[in-house]
Automatic annotation (TrEMBL):
Membrane topology: Multi-pass membrane protein
Keywords in alphabetical order: Cell membrane, Membrane, Transmembrane, Transmembrane helix
Matching InterPro entries: Prenyltransferase_related, UbiA_prenyltransferase, UbiA_sf
Keyword Membrane set for record: yes
Transmembrane segments: 34-54, 75-94, 100-118, 154-172, 184-204, 210-229, 265-284
Cell location: Membrane
Main location: membrane
Name assigned to this protein: UbiA-like protein EboC
Amino acid sequence: MRPANIVTAVADVLAGMAISGFLGSEVVNYLDHLLPLLCLCLATVGLYGGGVVFNDVMDAKLDKVERPERPIPSGIISLAQAIVLGSYLLLVGILAAFTVGRITGFIALGITVSALVYNKWGKHQAWGPVNMGLCRGLNLLLGISIVLPALQTYWWMGIIPVIYIAAVTYISRGEVHGGTPATMRVAAVCYAVVYGTMFALAYYNEHLLLASPFIILFIILINRPLWTAMKEPTGPNIGKAVKGGIIALVAMNAAWVAAFSTLPHALLVLILLPISLLMAKAFAVT
């Protein structure tokens, strides 16, 4: 299920809520907002976890050769058990999303379809990175959809995670056999577009001073391993760049919260970063 990655998916949803104005609204009682928040967090846990499980299910034969340490080829869990687990997680994710709203539920269905299409076909096609990015883009919209008028205003922000994750997925294709410096340079350009947009939106919302430290942290986390991989694009270096790109999503989402909400909310999201890093030491990220 990649627990460290699931934490970043929760951060996506929280960032979406901040963009919608949900976290920044004046609430007489925070408990009024707690149930839909928890349901969306449960939804993204189920959707991401289920999507990753089915990734391993559909890669089971290939993993026997390339990654025999993974749970299915190593015999820790059977293929049938993995299918049941993945199906259950996706179902929980979809149902939890529908408890928040009909549109939210349909977005969850879109994430499910996108993840399964990527697992079965997308990862082997040139359009695969965009397919993977679509899962993250929809995940951000899952959070924004908690306030429907905000979804109509900020739907286009789902494109930003698509660009970012497409770049991470693009370089990940060299994780086993190595890549090329040109691939890393393409990713660097995509990264620059993403954090450039983040600075622009923070400035537009008059939160530039508040959001800048979070954006700078995000830039450092993604560019340090990418620079190493650019100089020496070996499999292990690319793996570290991919891992860094995924874990850095927490800092990216904290920056979104800072750009659209308040410092306390941004810091609460950033707390997920050390949690994700600790989990990354115990569980695989890629």
